[in-house]
Specification:
heterodimer, A: mainly alpha, Cytochrome C Oxidase, Chain A, two-stranded antiparallel ribbon, 15 helices, 2 strands, globular, B: mainly alpha, Four Helix Bundle (Hemerythrin (Met), subunit A)
């Protein structure tokens, strides 16, 4: 499909000046601003991770003292979770592409969308301000467990308020997406004709909406406890710290699916495009997203098996945890079946998705080991847990994020990236990632606890392998990011539909005009992935 | 510059249903925000039932009852103001909203005296008398101050929301044909009311 040569102005050039960006109501510009912010914080978080790995190069002190190490891993966690991974895919690609995928020109509440962005900026300011104000950044871990979070002299109050404000931003984004999906789909597009990324955002938004307030109130209780002595969690003045853990995980476990579900939506978009065939099991993938969101509410107790919990409660939480694996593997089987007999075109976005499936499989299966009661007692709070969630979060969501960035890059900036460098960057990242995190799984089984700046001498070799892996990973990341920046400036002009995709965003120009569509987009008759040339049956 | 074409399903259209849906979703988040607190209340009350009962005798049931009546009445006046607006009677609608705001202020004044009495009796965290209380009674007061305090904050936010609607009606952005904002303020006000309907028995009428 070649683009018409009619002159048009893209959303990037429609208005100029810094104010036209900072106070824009255009979902695409808001998405881009989120992208720049989120990638910047990702790099800050990655640098902190690199510092930690450097400290762990040898037993004993290499670089920082124990207290600083505690602050580093807390700030790493807070930044990576609240500033990078929770907003990453929904706020960037959700904002940019949800209206395009639905065939509309904006989200339902454009002003609210801008407000969410500014709340994100404010929250980021609070998180980083702890570096300057008070007695340094929190040293509690990102979980802010009471009673330590109430007693420590570090600036927990500001970190907690940062998480509260970012949660509010996340709630408003979710609210906006739900209403957008209900009200703004192009005429004739029913729920079951929506692209699967929209479905996964829909499931995610409900979690954002219904789970985030619980962490909000819990964090406010921590603030009230620190400021007014409202001792709801500190046992020395009345409260129960285990109750804090429950309240925290009631949100923070569903939050894991806020991070994972949008990534699964990305996979479901990219695989059909590069297989040039319809997705296998559309409804199964769509509804399994909703099932994951639903079951995800009832499994929080598996973070607390060792905190003291009755036997029956532990069995029930364990069984429910295993149930999550069912809709998740339904998705994986459907993705693999989508590739089967497809006309596969190997491109960088597809490689990222295959890496996602590989990493996510390791992340998911190690998660089952942790969900099993007997194994968890051994593995709880070891490096196995650290390895597990980095496989899911970085290996899963992080890879999906970069895959999506490559997939939609031509649409967002109208340029094509340098493919050779993208291949190299991807390969180095994938190898480095596995060298970085796989040793952690082994270290955990051997019994190395997490969150210590030191370790026993017998763990030295694997820690050094992991640290070398961190250098390779960062090299890959730098190549990928530099390649995208350089290509965004000097890359070849991209066509409107470089991947021969058929979802609606490919029917408009690259980059799209301000109002997205200059004519009514047409939806394929037999569902969103009905490739005309694909073999049927 | 071909911008003459506008999608029928544009996000920039006025959509009363969307705005109402958005408000309802926001109310869910508010319910869950307080839901977390109700959960904490439930846990601690089941742990210390007797001490919760004992502590509740420190509250003034009559003041609480009076506040309940005030809030219920204000819910009625805001509902009437929406109907008045829909029927085109702007002046009545604005007056009813002012009455609602007056009720909100009345509620907060009574709350001020209630809290003030607790301070006078040394019943605030950190005070000597308070620190000498048994654990269950202290937890009761932690929750009392936190929950009624947060609710009071919502009363203030609700009042400000209604002020916006009043100015909207005066400026002509909220009209008998476009009354979503007024309806949303009403919904929010009912939520504030509803949460009090639960707080009142949980703190004042325990037995």
């Amino acid at each position: 499909m070649t683009s018409e040569t009619l002159p048009y102005t893209s959303y990037l050039k429609e208005k100029t000046g810094i104010m036209s960006w900072l106070f824009t109501l255009d979902h695409k510009r808001i998405g881009l601003m989120y992208l720049y912010g989120i990638v910047a914080f990702f790099l800050v978080g990655a640098t902190l991770g690199l510092l930690m790995r450097f400290e762990l190069l040898n037993p004993g002190k290499d670089l920082v003292d124990p207290h600083t190490y505690n602050q580093i891993f807390t700030l790493h966690g807070v930044i990576m979770i609240f500033l990078f991974i929770i907003p990453s895919i929904p706020a960037v690609f959700g904002n940019f592409f949800l209206p395009l995928l639905l065939g509309t020109d904006d989200v339902a509440f454009p002003k609210l969308n801008l407000l969410s962005f500014w709340l994100y900026v404010l929250g980021a300011f609070f998180a980083l301000a702890t570096l300057i104000f008070g007695d340094g950044p929190a040293d509690t871990g990102w979980t802010f467990y009471a009673p330590y979070s109430v007693k420590t002299g570090t600036n927990v109050t500001m970190s907690v308020l940062a998480a509260f404000i970012l949660g509010f931003s996340s709630i408003l984004t979710g609210l906006n997406f739900i209403v957008t999906i209900h009200r703004l789909r192009t005429p004739k597009m029913g729920f079951n004709q929506m692209p699967l990324f929209a479905w996964s955002l829909y499931a995610t938004s409900w979690i954002q909406l219904l789970a985030t307030p619980v962490i909000g109130i819990t964090l406010l209780m921590i603030v009230a406890e620190r400021m007014f002595g409202i001792g709801l969690f500190d046992p020395s003045i009345g409260g129960d710290p285990i109750l804090y853990q429950h309240m925290f995980w009631i949100y923070s476990h569903p939050a894991v699916y806020i991070m994972a579900l949008p990534a699964m939506g990305i996979v479901s978009e990219i695989l059909p495009t590069f297989s040039q065939r319809t997705i296998f099991g559309y409804k199964a993938i769509a509804y399994s997203s909703m099932a994951i969101a639903f079951i995800g509410y009832f499994v929080w107790g598996h973070h607390m098996f060792t905190s003291g919990m009755s036997g029956p409660a532990a069995y029930i939480f364990s069984i429910l945890t295993f149930l999550v694996a069912i809709p998740t593997s339904i998705k994986v089987f459907n993705w693999v079946s989508t590739l089967y007999k497809g006309s596969i075109v190997i491109e960088v976005p597809l490689l990222f998705m295959l890496a996602f499936i590989f990493n996510f499989l390791i992340g998911g299966l190690t998660g089952l080991a942790l969900g099993a009661l007997a194994a968890d007692v051994h593995l709880h709070d070891t490096y196995f847990v650290v390895g597990h969630f980095h496989y899911v979060m970085f290996g899963g969501t992080g890879f999906a994020f970069f895959g999506a960035l490559h997939y939609w890059f031509p649409k967002m900036w109208g340029k094509m990236y340098n493919k050779t460098r993208a291949y190299i960057g991807f390969a180095i990242l994938f190898v480095g990632f596995n060298i970085l995190y796989f040793p952690m799984l082994i270290l955990g089984i051997q019994g190395m606890p997490r969150r210590y700046y030191d370790y026993l001498p017998e763990f030295t070799f694997l820690n050094q392998v992991s640290t070398v892996g961190s250098w390779i990973t960062v090299t890959g990341l730098i190549i990928i990011i530099v390649n995208l920046i350089v290509s965004g400036r000097n890359g070849k002009k991209a066509t409107d539909n470089p991947w021969n995709g058929i979802t609606l965003e490919w029917q408009t120009k690259s980059p799209p005009p301000l109002h997205n569509f200059d004519k009514m987009p047409t939806i394929p008759e037999r569902g969103p992935y009905d490739y005309p040339n694909a073999k049927r049956g | 510059m071909n911008h003459t074409f506008v999608l029928p399903n544009s996000g920039h259209n006025f959509d009363a249903k969307a705005s109402k849906m958005g408000m309802w979703l926001f109310l869910y988040t508010e319910l869950l925000l307080f839901g977390g607190l109700f959960l904490v209340y439930m846990v601690y009350r089941s742990m210390y039932p007797d001490e919760f009962l004992l502590a509740s005798f420190n509250l003034n049931v009559w003041m609480g009852t009076f506040n309940t009546v005030i809030l219920l009445t204000s819910s009625m006046t805001i509902a009437m103001s929406i109907t008045a607006l829909q029927k085109g009677n702007k002046k009545l609608s604005i007056n009813l909203m002012w009455i609602t705001i007056a009720a909100a202020i009345g509620f907060l004044v009574i709350k001020y005296f209630e809290w003030g009495a607790k301070f006078d009796h040394g019943l605030f965290p950190g005070m000597d008398h308070f620190n000498a209380l048994p654990t269950g009674e202290r937890l009761y007061f932690y929750l009392y101050f936190f929950m009624t305090g947060l609710h009071g904050l919502h009363v203030i936010i609700g009042g400000i929301f209604i002020l916006f609607v009043i100015s909207g009606v005066k400026k002509g952005t909220v009209t008998p044909e476009r009354y979503s904002l007024s309806e949303n303020a009403g919904l929010y006000w009912h939520l504030v009311d509803l949460i009090w309907i639960y707080l009142f028995p949980l703190f004042y009428l325990i037995h």
